[in-house]
Amino acid sequence: MTIDKTAGALPVPERAHDTIRGGAAARPPGPVLLIALAALVAVPFVLDQAFSYHLAIFICINAIIVVSLSLLARAGQISLCHGALVGVGAYVSVACVKGLGLPFLAGAAAAMLAAGAVAFLLGMIVLRLQGVYFVLITFAFSELVRLVLLEWVGVTGGANGITDIPVAAIAGYAFSAKPAFYALALVMTAAVIAFFWFFYASPAGEAVDAVGQNPALAESSGIGVRRTQLFAFTVASAFAGLGGSLLAHYLGYISPESFNMHYSVALIVMMVVGGRTFLLGGLIGALVMTPLPELFRGAVQTQDIFYGVALILMLRFMPNGLASVGARMRARVQARASARDAANAPAGASEPNRRPT
Amino acid sequence: MNRTRTMLFSLALALPGAAMAQETLKIGALVTLSGAGAAWGQALLYGAELAAEDVNGKGGLEVGGKKYRVQVIPYDDKYQAAEAVTAANRLISDDKVKYIIGPMGSAPALAVQPLTEREKVIIMTLGFTNKALSPEKPYSFRPNLTTEETSYPIIDWLVKRDKLKKVGGLFPNDESGQQIAGDLGKAYEKAGAALSSKEFFERQRVDMVPLLTRMISAGIDAIELNGNSPATAGMIVRQARELGFKGPIVRNGGPATPEIVAVAGKAATQGMMVTSLQDPDNQEVARYAQRYQDTYRKAMNGFSPAFYDGTHMLFKAMQNAGTVTDSTKVRDELQKLKDFKGIQGVLNWSGKARYGIDHQVASPFFISEVKDGVEVTVARCDLEKCVDITR
Amino acid sequence: MSNLLAQALVNGVIIGLLYMLMAVGFTLVFGVMRVVNFAHGQFYMVGAFATYVLMTSWQLPFIVAMLGAFVVTAVLGMVIEWLVLKPFRHDELNGMIATIGVAMILQAVALIIFGPDSQIMPQVAEGIFQVGSVIIPASRLYVAVASVLVLAALYVFLIHSRQGKALRASVQDMEIAMAHGVRAKFMYPLGFSLGVGLASIAGSLMAPLFSVSPFIGSTPLLKAFMVVILGGLGSVPGAALASLLLGVGESVASSFISNSVAEILIFVLVMAILVVRPAGLMGKAGA
Questions:
Q1: Cβ neighbour number for residue A233 with a 10 Å cutoff
Q2: Which residues pair with C125 in a beta bridge?
Q3: Cα distance between the two ends of chain A
Q4: Minimal CB count within 10 Å: which of A296, B137, C58, C283?
Q5: B213 → closest Cβ in C11, C126, C137
Q6: How far C136 CA lies from chain B's nearest CA (Å)?
Q7: Which CATH number fits domain A50-292: 3.30.70, 1.10.3470, 3.40.1710, 1.25.40?
Q8: How many cross-chain Cβ pairs, A to B, lie less than 8 Å apart?
Q9: pLDDT at A2 > cutoff 80
């Protein structure tokens, strides 16, 4: 049940529920959004080009990973080892599928378990400390994972990586063709987003948001900050592991450098650009940032400058990311409509909606 | 009526002109252009560009009666496997290239090969991993020498000359470093000595003193600097001498002696044995280096001549095959090339014994001794052995 | 064996002093501004490049170049603080992400100006000193002495000067400091530029010892992180102690066991210490 935000005595009209984030629940998707999403999904099929499928697959995988990173951000923490945990998932999945001959879905499940377990153990130690230590340690941990992947040559293949990774296959059908893998990635992305949609509407999701917005208040109302952040970290990392598994079984090759600090930073940039407080923020961030390097592929040096500037500008002027643009437009439309209502019906008018921060 | 005839007439004139009008031959350059690997990536890209400039300057590459303007399309793979695959996808699917110079790193090379082999795209890769070449990868070629090729002849020569028994080596902790360490270890064993001390460090590491301290106290006769950048190599030499190491120091790799001498000083580098892919006396390479410097305002990286020659070999293969579109025919002609005259010298394909397929270039390489800060060539090598140069 | 140990200890102390310069600056920035400065390593790189340019293009002697680099970096720090970080003064998380953006920009700009290759700086000191069987290269001794002098100067500033005391008060508790008349408006830029200025000095000192490239910033950043994790964020004495411990620990470990294993071991050790002492060796118990 969402907290009633309007003045108690007045009847609550339909529109008041369209606050940007009632509790933690995302708005149900309106028709415009659904059509836009459907159109986007269809683009690669229409173009039917190998490269478009390739980009689309990466957008899906990045979306899964960034949406999961947003979970941790909503709990008030930033992980700099998210990329490393994607790597953990990738290597575990490969070990299961290529090494033990297990089916792809088992590998993906193992990847999620492993990444989640690693995060849980790390979080147990680290989240007891002051919040800011968490970031420092995830930074160092990312380096540690990279070193372990490099050194443990017997298991990981060392710097040479692992080649000939079996293609993802379910019940005997191998997703080797790009359109097929795209469909698989789409289904997984939709499933992950659906999961988070239900999650944020649940009490657990509200706890996460409460902790992120005002830890002191949350703590005093009985929501353990550390406990919730540990939970968020574990779940977020589990989905990072899933992303890693998909990545490994699409590319067919993994090596330690793919999961380094650079990658973790890129994920953070995607999250900030897309919007960390919105359910679809991760998707938007992945959608915008994944094809962007293609524009730069000639003039490379300027790319990092662009990313750095974009990051700083977003943080300053659009801290809730591109996803907040839609929300703000909606709010403005509603504010105007409410003002009109108030002008037309002076008695018993609804309160104008809260402007988003 | 008259007008139609004039139009038809001018069309008829235009058609052979259209046939002579330039078509473009697109070649992809899939290399690392950002980050620390950029120096090597540029070596490959500029080598391909300079080769393209050569033929374009003559009006285009003449293949099968047609002249083609060669266009090199560069993409940065950021030394990451995923980025390399994306770039390869774009090159093949969007730009429709059938020939790629690169990738540069082993990880990107291994990552793109499933795609390039399936699409019958010829790649000329620098990747040091011995997995880059195999009979299952008939479209992959390597136009540069790696430690697999150069180590045994050089080490055999060195071991005999200095009676080495235990050698220590410092290697960067990435796939080329690990590969090189393995190759060198085997070569030393075969020559009757041992690479007894191996230390791996992060590529950006600058403080080698703890590693050297450990190696020296374990007792070594010589230090191997294989695979290290000029600045790093210079620091290792200086730090080793500062720690009191007096034995011989050996370095494989591209031209770097001036930088090493600048860092370590003449006294520390006296007697250092340097192996290089080019003869310091080779005038053609010196001219190429000058041209490189003039065009790009950067000192030439040691691998560039190999890729300059490699691109020219590709062009020759296309000419022999009479086609630029049938990559299978071009591949066949490419691997048939014998005694190709490049700026590095006479080039051939070999490598069947090691890789199962003759797609590894065999070019001459050299051993020099650093005397008073300057390299003096003392031996000339091929894949079998090194022979003293009598002056 | 004892010879090796003695040599390792000496190596470790010298490196530890360099870590101290990095870590103290980093922890100062955090203490004053509550910002985890991810660009700290890039200011180290800026200091190194500034020294390089001043020495090679303007032929200045090393000490002058180092001071010049300090000024350049401090001013750059002030500008960045005002331009980029000011809006995040009370927003730790976003401020931290903003410094990630700053780090990306600084490195990319250096890459464009100087290219990816390492630049070699002229030597500052030649020769070696030998104490018993322990060898100390003169260039490293130079660095160690300079670090000690700089840290001593910092100590004097922090303990005895008015601004220094104000700074320390801000680190302890900004609100109460403000209640006592300390102007936050000045503390933020002062703290930030002093902090990154220290990183610049570390970069200047290391530049002739090692080489200068746009990529030299990431390792010192990692070391600074490890030191403050170990020593307690916001504690200058903690940073000092922890940096020596880390330097010596690393040096001894990699002198006796393989380098890569040593690096993993160090990390595990730091984590283990955190389990036992969550606030670091000298940090305040966190809230």
A1: 28
A2: none
A3: 22
A4: C58
A5: C11
A6: 8
A7: 1.10.3470
A8: 92
A9: no
Q: What are C247-272's pLDDT values in tens digits?
A: 998 888 887 887 778 888 888 888 78
Which residues in chain A have Cβ-Cβ distances shorter than 8 Å to B83?
293
Domain carrying residue C101: 16-215
Give the domains, in start order, of chain B with CATH numbers.
7-145+283-358 (3.40.50.2300), 147-276+366-388 (3.40.50.2300)
C98 at interface of A, judged by CB pairs closer than 8 A: yes
Q: In chain C, positions 67-126, which contact chain B (CB-CB < 8 Å)?
A: 111, 115-120, 123, 126
Residues of chain B with pLDDT under 50: 1, 6, 10, 14, 16-19
Chain B CB within 8 Å of residue A51 CB: yes
Alpha helices in chain C (DSSP H): 2-33, 40-56, 62-80, 92-114, 138-160, 162-172, 174-179, 184-206, 218-231, 236-256, 259-276
Question: Which residues in chain A touch residue C101, judged by CB atoms under 8 angstroms apart?
Answer: 307-312, 315
pLDDT tens, position by position, for chain C (287 residues)? 677 788 888 888 988 998 998 899 998 888 888 888 999 999 999 999 999 999 988 888 888 999 999 999 999 999 999 999 988 888 888 898 999 999 999 999 998 898 887 888 877 777 778 877 788 888 888 888 988 999 899 889 988 988 888 888 887 788 888 888 888 788 888 889 999 999 999 999 988 888 788 988 988 998 998 898 888 887 888 888 999 999 998 888 887 887 778 888 888 888 787 777 776 677 654 43
CA dist., res. A181 & res. A194, Å (int): 20
Predicted structure pTM score:
0.85
Nearest to C120 among B200, B211, B259 (CB): B259
B173 in contact with A, Cβ within 8 Å: yes
CA distance C74 to chain A (A): 21
Q: Read off φ and ψ for residue C103, nearest 5 degrees.
A: -60, -45
Q: Which of C36, C225, C264 sits opposite A151 (nearest CB)?
A: C264
Q: Residues of C with CB below 8 A from B201's CB?
A: 259
- A14: number of Cβ within 10 Å: 7
- Measure the CA–CA gap between B354 and B149, rounded to whole angstroms: 9
8 Å CB contact of B210 and C218: no
Q: How far is A141 from chain C (nearest CA, A)?
A: 8
Contact B298 C8 (CB under 8 A): no
* Pair of tokens at residue A137: 């340690």
Query: In Å, how far is C182's CA from the nearest CA of chain B?
Result: 42
Between the alpha carbon of residue C224 and those of residues A297, B208, C218, the distances in Å are 34, 19, 10
In eight-state DSSP terms, residue C209 is T
Please choose, from the candidates B37, B186, B51, B232, the residue with its C-alpha nearest in 3D space to the C-alpha of residue B126: B37
Residue C1: per-residue pLDDT = 61
Q: Which residues contact A322 (CB under 8 A, 6 or more apart)?
A: A273, A274, A275, A281, A284, A285, A288
How far from the centroid of its chain's Cα atoms is residue A216's Cα?
26
ipTM: 0.86
Starting at the edge strand that comes first in sequence, how are the strands of the sheet with B140-141 ordered?
B61-63, B66-76, B23-31, B99-101, B122-124, B140-141
d(CA B99, CA A209): 52
| Cα gap B116→A252, rounded to integer Å | 13
Rounded Cα distance between C44 and C49, Å, is: 9
Please state, in angstroms and rounded to a whole number, the distance separating the CA atoms of residues A223 and A234. Answer: 17
Q: Assess C133–A contact: CB distance below 8 Å, yes or no.
A: no
Tally of domains within chain C: 1
Task: Residue C268: name the closest of A145, A231, A265, A89 by CA.
Answer: A145
